[in-house]
């Protein structure tokens, strides 16, 4: 616990440096090696890593709190830190040999990912043949392994399984395709695989992660590793968006304290009651999003620590609150941007970057509100909600 607290303090101390590097990350279209090394030095990437590999196996709320702080300084850095940081949690669910392959010689080894099953998977003796192209692998420049989603064909048109496959850098190439309007600094390039063999132990079924019964739990017995993938990973996407909106809020309030509205006869913006209301609404949205996240994660961890089953209704609520958290953060950043005046559209103003980054994160597939909210509604009406367990 003390180690995780020290990590959070270290991240706080690093925040001003990351804020100063935000424009550089955007211009370079990737996070600097220096920033990744600085985050690693705080221990951030070890927060969700098993203790037997030098990790802190910390409460997810601590991890997400750090992500929010990082993203408030630089949206791209927060996004990369979040998705790369959660991979240490997922690898802990794999068979032990996979964990040894990655962390045996260097526990600080990092992994990127791309979960959309866009490649081709063929089951063979001892494992799988993997080939194809996967997109949006954030931070892949800084990783030496990758986690790729793939569907294992069954008989006929029915998939046999949906799995994650773990590949070393020698088995893939990275193609630079990342030219975007938002999250420009994430370096979320394509992963290309040409008929690589992946041994069976370097794959993990999404069905097992949904049931919270994975091979890695035999050795990694902490409650953290009894949380479903479908409850941890979605907040890995929403949290940096909340962080970006929080950074926008801080920048907006600081700016508006000094701003004079020329169009309104020189009235100070801070004294405008309409501006005050917009700021209050944005603050309320951000607080609501964050309070729901922390409440959900705390309840999940409390039940996991007690060895109790995680009820379907709670898991559905986690997904409901996750997509609503993204919606509230976008609502807040939109309101702040609209309240900032014409100066906010200049490329030198941080508001436009926070706005673009948050909206770029919003289009991630996990943020589909109608799909998640429909599942919650089905659960309330007593209908099947099997998809929500993934």
From TrEMBL:
Keywords: Oxidoreductase. The keyword Ribosomal protein does not apply. Residues 236-368 form the Acyl-CoA dehydrogenase C-terminal domain. Residues 18-103 form the Acyl-CoA dehydrogenase/oxidase N-terminal domain. Gene3D superfamilies: Acyl-CoA dehydrogenase/oxidase, N-terminal domain, Butyryl-CoA Dehydrogenase, subunit A, domain 2, Butyryl-CoA Dehydrogenase, subunit A, domain 3. The keyword Oxidoreductase applies. It comes from the Bacteria. NCBIfam families: monooxsub_HsaA. PANTHER family: FLAVIN-DEPENDENT MONOOXYGENASE, OXYGENASE SUBUNIT HSAA, MEDIUM-CHAIN SPECIFIC ACYL-COA DEHYDROGENASE, MITOCHONDRIAL-RELATED. Belongs to the HpaH/HsaA monooxygenase family. This is Acyl-CoA dehydrogenase. The lineage of its organism: Bacteria, Bacillati, Actinomycetota, Actinomycetes, Micromonosporales.
């Amino acid at each position: 616990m003390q180690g995780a607290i020290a990590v959070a303090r270290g991240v706080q101390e690093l925040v001003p440096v990351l804020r100063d590097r935000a424009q550089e990350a955007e211009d370079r279209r990737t996070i600097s090696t220096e920033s990744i090394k600085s985050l690693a030095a705080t221990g951030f990437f070890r927060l969700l890593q098993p203790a037997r590999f030098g990790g802190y196996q910390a409460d997810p709320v601590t991890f997400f709190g750090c992500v929010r702080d990082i993203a408030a300084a630089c949206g791209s850095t927060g996004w990369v830190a979040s998705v790369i940081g959660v991979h240490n949690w997922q690898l802990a669910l794999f068979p032990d040999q996979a964990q040894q392959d990655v962390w045996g010689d260097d526990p600080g080894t990092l992994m990127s990912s791309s979960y959309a099953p866009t490649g081709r998977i063929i089951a063979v003796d001892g494992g799988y043949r993997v080939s194809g192209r996967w997109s949006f692998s954030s931070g892949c420049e800084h990783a030496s392994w990758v986690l790729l989603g793939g569907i294992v064909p069954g008989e006929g048109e029915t998939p046999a399984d949906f799995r994650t496959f773990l590949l070393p850098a020698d088995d893939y190439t990275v193609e630079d395709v990342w030219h975007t309007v938002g999250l420009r600094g994430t370096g979320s390039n394509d992963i290309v695989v040409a008929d690589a063999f992946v041994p069976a132990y370097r794959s993990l079924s999404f069905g097992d992660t949904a049931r919270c019964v994975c091979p890695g739990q035999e050795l990694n017995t902490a409650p953290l590793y009894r949380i479903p993938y479908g409850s941890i990973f979605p907040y890995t996407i929403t949290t940096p968006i909340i962080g970006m909106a929080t950074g926008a809020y801080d920048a907006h309030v600081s700016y508006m304290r000094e701003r004079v509205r020329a169009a309104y006869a020189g009235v100070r913006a801070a004294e405008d009651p309409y501006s005050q209301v917009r700021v209050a609404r944005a603050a309320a949205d951000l607080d609501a999003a964050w309070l729901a996240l922390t409440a959900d994660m705390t309840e999940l961890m409390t039940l996991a620590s007690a060895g109790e089953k995680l009820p379907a209704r709670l898991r559905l609520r986690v997904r409901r609150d996750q997509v609503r958290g993204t919606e509230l953060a976008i609502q807040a950043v939109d309101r702040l941007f609209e309240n900032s005046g014409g100066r906010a559209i200049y490329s030198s103003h941080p508001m436009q970057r926070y706005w673009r980054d948050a909206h770029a994160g919003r289009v991630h597939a996990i943020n589909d509100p109608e799909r998640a909210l429909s599942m919650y509604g089905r659960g309330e009406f007593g209908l099947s909600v099997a998809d929500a367990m993934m």
